[in-house]
Amino acid sequence: MRRNVVLSVSAVVLLLAAGFALFPSVFASGDPLRGVPAEKLQGPSAAHWFGTDNLGRDVYTRVVHGAGLSLTATLVAVGIALVVGSLVGLLSGALGGGVDAVLMRIVDVLLSIPALLLSLALVTALGFGTMNVAIAVGVSLVANFARVMRSEVLRVRKALYVEAAFACGVRWRTVLRRHVLRNSYAPVTALAAVEFGMAVLAVSSLSFLGFGAVPPTPEWGSLISEGRNYLAAAWWMTTLPGLVIVAVVLAAHRIGHAIEDRSAK
Protein backbone atom coordinates (compact mmCIF):
# COMPACT_ATOMS: atom_id res chain seq x y z
CA MET A 1 0.00 0.00 0.00
CA ARG A 2 2.90 2.39 0.63
CA ARG A 3 3.85 1.99 -3.05
CA ASN A 4 0.30 2.51 -4.32
CA VAL A 5 -1.29 5.85 -3.48
CA VAL A 6 -4.70 4.96 -4.96
CA LEU A 7 -4.89 1.76 -2.93
CA SER A 8 -3.89 3.62 0.23
CA VAL A 9 -6.54 6.30 -0.31
CA SER A 10 -9.13 3.59 -0.97
CA ALA A 11 -8.24 1.86 2.28
CA VAL A 12 -8.53 5.14 4.20
CA VAL A 13 -11.97 5.81 2.66
CA LEU A 14 -13.24 2.37 3.67
CA LEU A 15 -11.81 2.75 7.18
CA LEU A 16 -13.55 6.11 7.54
CA ALA A 17 -16.83 4.62 6.33
CA ALA A 18 -16.44 1.79 8.85
CA GLY A 19 -15.72 4.37 11.56
CA PHE A 20 -18.86 6.28 10.61
CA ALA A 21 -20.92 3.09 10.91
CA LEU A 22 -19.39 1.84 14.17
CA PHE A 23 -18.76 5.09 16.06
CA PRO A 24 -21.01 7.79 14.55
CA SER A 25 -20.99 9.93 17.69
CA VAL A 26 -17.21 10.19 17.54
CA PHE A 27 -17.28 11.70 14.05
CA ALA A 28 -20.51 13.71 14.45
CA SER A 29 -21.76 14.36 17.96
CA GLY A 30 -24.93 16.20 16.91
CA ASP A 31 -28.45 14.82 16.69
CA PRO A 32 -29.19 13.75 13.07
CA LEU A 33 -32.96 14.13 13.63
CA ARG A 34 -32.96 17.55 15.23
CA GLY A 35 -32.84 20.71 13.15
CA VAL A 36 -32.65 24.43 13.75
CA PRO A 37 -35.22 26.14 11.48
CA ALA A 38 -33.32 29.42 11.61
CA GLU A 39 -30.31 27.66 9.97
CA LYS A 40 -32.13 25.86 7.16
CA LEU A 41 -30.60 25.61 3.66
CA GLN A 42 -27.24 27.02 4.69
CA GLY A 43 -24.32 26.16 2.43
CA PRO A 44 -21.19 24.25 3.45
CA SER A 45 -19.18 26.13 6.07
CA ALA A 46 -16.90 25.59 9.05
CA ALA A 47 -19.97 25.15 11.27
CA HIS A 48 -21.76 22.80 8.86
CA TRP A 49 -19.31 20.93 6.63
CA PHE A 50 -21.99 19.60 4.30
CA GLY A 51 -24.45 22.45 4.84
CA THR A 52 -27.96 22.10 6.27
CA ASP A 53 -31.20 20.76 4.81
CA ASN A 54 -34.65 22.28 4.51
CA LEU A 55 -35.37 21.63 8.21
CA GLY A 56 -32.07 23.02 9.47
CA ARG A 57 -30.51 19.59 10.14
CA ASP A 58 -26.77 19.19 9.63
CA VAL A 59 -26.25 17.13 6.47
CA TYR A 60 -22.80 15.88 7.51
CA THR A 61 -24.23 14.55 10.78
CA ARG A 62 -26.99 12.78 8.89
CA VAL A 63 -24.48 11.26 6.44
CA VAL A 64 -22.33 9.95 9.31
CA HIS A 65 -25.27 8.49 11.24
CA GLY A 66 -26.78 7.10 8.04
CA ALA A 67 -23.65 5.05 7.35
CA GLY A 68 -24.64 2.50 10.00
CA LEU A 69 -27.89 1.46 8.30
CA SER A 70 -26.54 1.66 4.75
CA LEU A 71 -23.35 -0.32 5.38
CA THR A 72 -25.08 -2.86 7.64
CA ALA A 73 -27.60 -3.56 4.89
CA THR A 74 -24.71 -3.86 2.41
CA LEU A 75 -22.84 -6.36 4.59
CA VAL A 76 -26.00 -8.45 5.08
CA ALA A 77 -26.64 -8.42 1.32
CA VAL A 78 -23.08 -9.49 0.46
CA GLY A 79 -23.16 -12.12 3.23
CA ILE A 80 -26.38 -13.64 1.85
CA ALA A 81 -25.01 -13.67 -1.69
CA LEU A 82 -21.67 -15.13 -0.56
CA VAL A 83 -23.14 -17.98 1.52
CA VAL A 84 -26.02 -18.96 -0.74
CA GLY A 85 -24.11 -18.46 -3.99
CA SER A 86 -21.09 -20.40 -2.74
CA LEU A 87 -23.28 -23.28 -1.58
CA VAL A 88 -25.13 -23.43 -4.91
CA GLY A 89 -21.88 -23.28 -6.88
CA LEU A 90 -20.22 -25.88 -4.67
CA LEU A 91 -23.08 -28.37 -5.02
CA SER A 92 -23.42 -27.74 -8.73
CA GLY A 93 -19.75 -28.21 -9.47
CA ALA A 94 -19.26 -31.15 -7.11
CA LEU A 95 -22.34 -33.21 -7.94
CA GLY A 96 -22.62 -32.45 -11.67
CA GLY A 97 -25.17 -34.21 -13.84
CA GLY A 98 -28.83 -33.34 -13.37
CA VAL A 99 -28.20 -31.31 -10.21
CA ASP A 100 -25.72 -29.13 -12.05
CA ALA A 101 -28.10 -28.66 -14.99
CA VAL A 102 -31.05 -27.64 -12.80
CA LEU A 103 -29.05 -25.29 -10.54
CA MET A 104 -27.30 -23.61 -13.45
CA ARG A 105 -30.58 -23.05 -15.31
CA ILE A 106 -31.89 -21.26 -12.21
CA VAL A 107 -28.67 -19.22 -12.08
CA ASP A 108 -29.04 -18.39 -15.79
CA VAL A 109 -32.56 -17.08 -15.16
CA LEU A 110 -31.28 -14.87 -12.34
CA LEU A 111 -28.43 -13.60 -14.52
CA SER A 112 -30.85 -12.75 -17.34
CA ILE A 113 -32.70 -10.27 -15.10
CA PRO A 114 -30.94 -6.94 -14.34
CA ALA A 115 -29.85 -6.96 -10.69
CA LEU A 116 -31.56 -3.70 -9.78
CA LEU A 117 -34.82 -4.77 -11.44
CA LEU A 118 -34.73 -8.12 -9.64
CA SER A 119 -34.01 -6.52 -6.26
CA LEU A 120 -36.78 -3.97 -6.89
CA ALA A 121 -39.28 -6.76 -7.60
CA LEU A 122 -38.19 -8.69 -4.50
CA VAL A 123 -38.34 -5.72 -2.13
CA THR A 124 -41.78 -4.85 -3.50
CA ALA A 125 -42.93 -8.36 -2.52
CA LEU A 126 -41.14 -8.34 0.86
CA GLY A 127 -42.18 -4.84 1.90
CA PHE A 128 -40.39 -1.73 3.08
CA GLY A 129 -37.48 -1.77 5.51
CA THR A 130 -33.69 -1.81 5.52
CA MET A 131 -33.38 -5.55 6.13
CA ASN A 132 -35.84 -6.35 3.35
CA VAL A 133 -33.73 -4.20 1.05
CA ALA A 134 -30.63 -6.13 2.15
CA ILE A 135 -32.31 -9.48 1.46
CA ALA A 136 -33.50 -8.35 -1.96
CA VAL A 137 -30.05 -7.08 -2.97
CA GLY A 138 -28.41 -10.24 -1.62
CA VAL A 139 -30.66 -12.53 -3.66
CA SER A 140 -29.97 -10.47 -6.80
CA LEU A 141 -26.21 -11.07 -6.34
CA VAL A 142 -26.39 -14.83 -5.67
CA ALA A 143 -25.95 -15.84 -9.33
CA ASN A 144 -22.56 -14.12 -9.68
CA PHE A 145 -21.12 -15.98 -6.68
CA ALA A 146 -22.62 -19.29 -7.81
CA ARG A 147 -21.00 -19.03 -11.24
CA VAL A 148 -17.55 -18.17 -9.87
CA MET A 149 -17.67 -20.91 -7.21
CA ARG A 150 -18.82 -23.53 -9.72
CA SER A 151 -15.99 -22.71 -12.12
CA GLU A 152 -13.44 -22.97 -9.30
CA VAL A 153 -14.87 -26.26 -8.05
CA LEU A 154 -14.72 -27.73 -11.55
CA ARG A 155 -11.09 -26.67 -11.79
CA VAL A 156 -10.09 -28.07 -8.39
CA ARG A 157 -12.00 -31.32 -8.90
CA LYS A 158 -9.52 -32.33 -11.60
CA ALA A 159 -6.47 -31.76 -9.40
CA LEU A 160 -4.26 -34.77 -8.61
CA TYR A 161 -4.59 -34.42 -4.84
CA VAL A 162 -8.39 -34.61 -5.11
CA GLU A 163 -8.21 -37.73 -7.27
CA ALA A 164 -5.68 -39.22 -4.82
CA ALA A 165 -8.03 -38.53 -1.91
CA PHE A 166 -10.87 -40.31 -3.68
CA ALA A 167 -8.54 -43.18 -4.58
CA CYS A 168 -7.60 -43.59 -0.90
CA GLY A 169 -11.25 -44.01 0.02
CA VAL A 170 -11.82 -40.63 1.67
CA ARG A 171 -15.50 -39.72 1.86
CA TRP A 172 -16.69 -37.20 -0.72
CA ARG A 173 -17.98 -34.84 1.98
CA THR A 174 -14.54 -34.76 3.56
CA VAL A 175 -12.84 -34.20 0.20
CA LEU A 176 -15.32 -31.45 -0.56
CA ARG A 177 -14.66 -29.68 2.73
CA ARG A 178 -10.90 -30.19 3.12
CA HIS A 179 -9.67 -29.98 -0.45
CA VAL A 180 -12.23 -28.59 -2.88
CA LEU A 181 -13.78 -25.80 -0.81
CA ARG A 182 -10.49 -24.79 0.80
CA ASN A 183 -8.84 -24.30 -2.59
CA SER A 184 -11.82 -22.61 -4.28
CA TYR A 185 -12.78 -19.80 -1.92
CA ALA A 186 -10.09 -17.22 -2.80
CA PRO A 187 -11.68 -15.91 -6.07
CA VAL A 188 -15.09 -15.87 -4.36
CA THR A 189 -13.69 -13.79 -1.51
CA ALA A 190 -12.23 -11.34 -4.01
CA LEU A 191 -15.60 -11.18 -5.77
CA ALA A 192 -17.25 -10.35 -2.42
CA ALA A 193 -14.97 -7.34 -2.04
CA VAL A 194 -15.81 -6.16 -5.56
CA GLU A 195 -19.54 -6.75 -5.16
CA PHE A 196 -19.53 -4.80 -1.89
CA GLY A 197 -19.33 -1.59 -3.90
CA MET A 198 -22.19 -2.65 -6.18
CA ALA A 199 -24.24 -3.61 -3.12
CA VAL A 200 -23.71 -0.14 -1.62
CA LEU A 201 -25.02 1.35 -4.84
CA ALA A 202 -28.00 -1.02 -5.01
CA VAL A 203 -28.98 -0.46 -1.35
CA SER A 204 -28.71 3.30 -1.80
CA SER A 205 -30.78 3.14 -4.99
CA LEU A 206 -33.62 1.27 -3.27
CA SER A 207 -33.40 3.65 -0.34
CA PHE A 208 -33.60 6.55 -2.80
CA LEU A 209 -36.82 5.05 -4.19
CA GLY A 210 -38.32 4.94 -0.70
CA PHE A 211 -37.99 1.24 0.15
CA GLY A 212 -35.53 1.72 3.01
CA ALA A 213 -35.91 3.05 6.52
CA VAL A 214 -38.90 5.21 7.40
CA PRO A 215 -38.11 8.97 7.42
CA PRO A 216 -36.66 10.85 9.22
CA THR A 217 -34.17 8.02 9.86
CA PRO A 218 -31.11 8.89 7.76
CA GLU A 219 -29.89 6.55 5.03
CA TRP A 220 -27.52 7.50 2.24
CA GLY A 221 -30.04 6.95 -0.52
CA SER A 222 -32.88 8.70 1.30
CA LEU A 223 -30.64 11.72 1.94
CA ILE A 224 -30.22 12.18 -1.80
CA SER A 225 -33.95 11.69 -2.30
CA GLU A 226 -34.75 14.36 0.30
CA GLY A 227 -32.54 16.91 -1.45
CA ARG A 228 -33.70 16.43 -5.04
CA ASN A 229 -36.52 18.98 -4.63
CA TYR A 230 -33.97 21.59 -3.53
CA LEU A 231 -31.29 20.82 -6.10
CA ALA A 232 -31.36 24.28 -7.70
CA ALA A 233 -31.18 26.21 -4.41
CA ALA A 234 -29.29 23.74 -2.18
CA TRP A 235 -27.07 21.53 -4.35
CA TRP A 236 -25.13 20.25 -1.33
CA MET A 237 -28.11 18.25 -0.03
CA THR A 238 -27.76 15.76 -2.88
CA THR A 239 -24.26 16.30 -4.22
CA LEU A 240 -22.24 15.78 -1.05
CA PRO A 241 -24.01 12.58 0.16
CA GLY A 242 -23.76 11.36 -3.44
CA LEU A 243 -20.02 11.97 -3.48
CA VAL A 244 -19.68 9.96 -0.26
CA ILE A 245 -21.44 7.01 -1.91
CA VAL A 246 -19.27 7.35 -5.02
CA ALA A 247 -16.09 7.42 -2.90
CA VAL A 248 -17.08 4.27 -0.98
CA VAL A 249 -18.08 2.40 -4.15
CA LEU A 250 -14.85 3.28 -5.98
CA ALA A 251 -12.73 2.45 -2.91
CA ALA A 252 -14.42 -0.94 -2.52
CA HIS A 253 -13.86 -1.71 -6.20
CA ARG A 254 -10.18 -0.79 -5.97
CA ILE A 255 -9.62 -2.89 -2.85
CA GLY A 256 -11.58 -5.76 -4.38
CA HIS A 257 -9.52 -5.75 -7.57
CA ALA A 258 -6.32 -5.62 -5.52
CA ILE A 259 -7.45 -8.71 -3.58
CA GLU A 260 -8.40 -10.40 -6.85
CA ASP A 261 -5.00 -9.68 -8.39
CA ARG A 262 -3.24 -10.99 -5.30
CA SER A 263 -5.29 -14.20 -5.19
CA ALA A 264 -4.56 -14.82 -8.88
CA LYS A 265 -0.79 -14.86 -8.28
From TrEMBL:
<feature type="transmembrane region" description="Helical">
    <location>
        <begin position="185"/>
        <end position="213"/>
    </location>
</feature>
<dbReference type="Pfam" id="PF00528">
    <property type="entry name" value="BPD_transp_1"/>
</dbReference>
<feature type="transmembrane region" description="Helical">
    <location>
        <begin position="233"/>
        <end position="252"/>
    </location>
</feature>
<keyword id="KW-0812">Transmembrane</keyword>
<comment type="similarity">
    <text>Belongs to the binding-protein-dependent transport system permease family.</text>
</comment>
<keyword id="KW-0472">Membrane</keyword>
<feature type="signal peptide">
    <location>
        <begin position="1"/>
        <end position="28"/>
    </location>
</feature>
<dbReference type="InterPro" id="IPR050366">
    <property type="entry name" value="BP-dependent_transpt_permease"/>
</dbReference>
<keyword id="KW-1133">Transmembrane helix</keyword>
<protein>
    <submittedName>
        <fullName>ABC transporter permease</fullName>
    </submittedName>
</protein>
<keyword id="KW-0732">Signal</keyword>
<feature type="transmembrane region" description="Helical">
    <location>
        <begin position="67"/>
        <end position="90"/>
    </location>
</feature>
<keyword id="KW-1003">Cell membrane</keyword>
<dbReference type="InterPro" id="IPR035906">
    <property type="entry name" value="MetI-like_sf"/>
</dbReference>
<keyword id="KW-0813">Transport</keyword>
<dbReference type="InterPro" id="IPR000515">
    <property type="entry name" value="MetI-like"/>
</dbReference>
<feature type="domain" description="ABC transmembrane type-1">
    <location>
        <begin position="67"/>
        <end position="256"/>
    </location>
</feature>
<feature type="transmembrane region" description="Helical">
    <location>
        <begin position="129"/>
        <end position="148"/>
    </location>
</feature>
<feature type="transmembrane region" description="Helical">
    <location>
        <begin position="102"/>
        <end position="123"/>
    </location>
</feature>
